[in-house]
Write a structure and sequence with these properties.
The chain has about 400 residues and is an alpha/beta fold. About 20% of the residues lie in helices and about 30% in strands. It contains 7 helices and 28 strands. Bound molecules: adenosine monophosphate (AMP) and magnesium ion (MG).
Length: about 400
């Protein structure tokens, strides 16, 4: 990498690095509940008509429209058709059948009179035998009848390829009897945080040690962007340990993200291990997140972020979240134009991503200092303020682009 790669250059480099993996992801069969949020890889056509059969839209009485044209009229009730009724029923002309919503329409009936427009006088033993219904008003043929195939015809497109399945799609699939779908496989992303100082959040602290914030930041970011975490682990700064862990994680992943160990200091374990393998490690003209690297090991792309927690999170938001979201069929994260609440200073020759609070009134205010260790302050932000590469100062009231978090 040239010393002063721009953010756009580096983003393009990462896109190119990931393209072969994304292109060969393939698909898998996923059962319905688990298919929520997955992206279909084929068109799905319906094997059935929807509704499956002609049925009643109301609780009421199935009649011939011509028999009730002269309403009010009293008709003999010759039976009951509850929902789920299995045997075919035929309406005797000049009579009515009591019918429930969703029950199959009897042969010979062409309208349903809703129960609200009727009065039923029960027959023998308070049953339907000999019962009489008085119909208050007439109905046109077809009224309150749901025709077979009126929603969708057999063979019609039910769900198109490339659809990210929401609850409404799952409902349509289930209604058509489709219990599983071919979905694009999700990218399996491995995470290795590095640093001899790191302890997991549930481990005991010791002098000089800190809790690992990046492992969870990256894990959560990956899930949020619609990918899956294959492994999330941590290495000390010993090259042998890191290499060993790296081989394992590469073996289980389509993409690996590392944090830390790519700066210019001593004990930069990611740089030490990956550079001899052909990695490109250098700096990108951005703040936070200057030191960046990329590598490929056994065909698996590796994206290396710096270790400061704000740098790691901004790097993920800028370089990986957009790609991962695209692969997962998620809409891009929103970028908005806002008005600066106060003047900001920036460094010449570096694109800055300041942490800000975007307000409902259209303004954005800087919420934290520029240092990339300010992990708690970042939690207060809801936006990154994108200050262009060559800008050194912007006044209150000037427009900026913000990346909503
Ligand atoms: P490095 O990029 O490895 O030089 O680390 C830069 C700074 O980030 C150091 O202060 C590290 O202690 C800190 N750091 C590195 N990794 C993590 C992590 N996973 N969680 C929290 N802080 C970290
Ligand atoms: Mg380190």
């Amino acid at each position: 990498m040239t010393p002063a790669a721009t953010v756009d250059d580096h983003a393009m480099l990462i896109d190119r690095l990931l393209a072969p993996v994304i292109g060969s992801l393939g698909s898998e069969t996923v059962a319905l509940p688990a298919a929520l949020g997955r992206v279909t890889s084929t068109d799905i056509h319906s094997d059935v008509d929807l509704p499956l059969f002609r049925n009643s839209q109301m609780d009421g009485f199935a009649v011939r429209a011509s028999d009730v044209a002269t309403a009010p009229i009293a008709l003999e009730v010759t039976g009951d058709i509850p929902a789920g009724h299995a045997s075919p029923v035929t309406l005797i002309p000049g009579t009515a059948l009591r019918i429930m919503t969703g029950a199959p329409m009897p042969e010979g009936a062409d309208a349903v009179v809703p129960v609200e427009d009727t009065e039923l006088v029960l027959g023998r033993d308070d049953g339907l035998e000999g019962a009489i219904v008085t119909i208050a008003r007439g109905r046109e043929a077809g009224e309150f009848v749901r025709e077979r195939g009126s929603d969708l015809r057999r063979g019609d497109l039910l769900i198109a390829a490339g659809t990210r399945l929401a609850p409404r799609h799952l409902a349509a699939l289930a209604a058509a009897g489709v219990g599983s779908v071919d979905a694009r496989r999700r990218l399996r992303v491995g995470v290795i945080t590095t640093g001899a100082e790191l302890v997991a959040v549930d481990e005991e602290l010791a002098l000089g040690r800190i809790f690992d914030a990046n492992r969870i930041a990256l894990t959560a970011g990956i899930i949020d962007a619609g990918a899956v975490v294959s492994v999330a682990t941590s290495s000390d700064d010993d090259p042998r340990t890191f290499r060993h862990i790296l081989d394992d994680v590469v073996g289980a992943s389509d993409l690996v993200i590392t944090s830390g160990g790519v700066s210019k200091g001593a004990f930069e374990v990611v740089r030490e291990v990956l550079e001899p393998l052909g990695a490109s490690v250098g700096s990108v003209a951005m703040q936070p997140g200057g030191p960046q690297g990329t590598a490929v090991l056994d065909g698996v792309p590796i994206v290396c972020f710096p270790g400061n927690p704000v740098s790691t999170q901004v790097s993920f938001a800028v370089f990986l979240a957009p790609v991962l979201r695209r692969v997962a069929g998620l809409p891009p994260e929103t970028r908005e134009s806002r008005v600066l609440a106060a003047a900001v200073e920036s460094v010449a020759g570096k694109r800055q991503f300041l942490r800000g609070i975007a307000d409902d009134d259209g303004t954005v205010a800087v919420v934290a200092g520029p240092s990339s260790h300010l992990v708690a302050a970042m939690a207060l932000a809801n936006a990154l303020i994108d200050i262009p590469h060559d800008t050194t100062r912007l006044e209150a009231g000037e427009k900026v682009t913000v990346w909503m978090l």
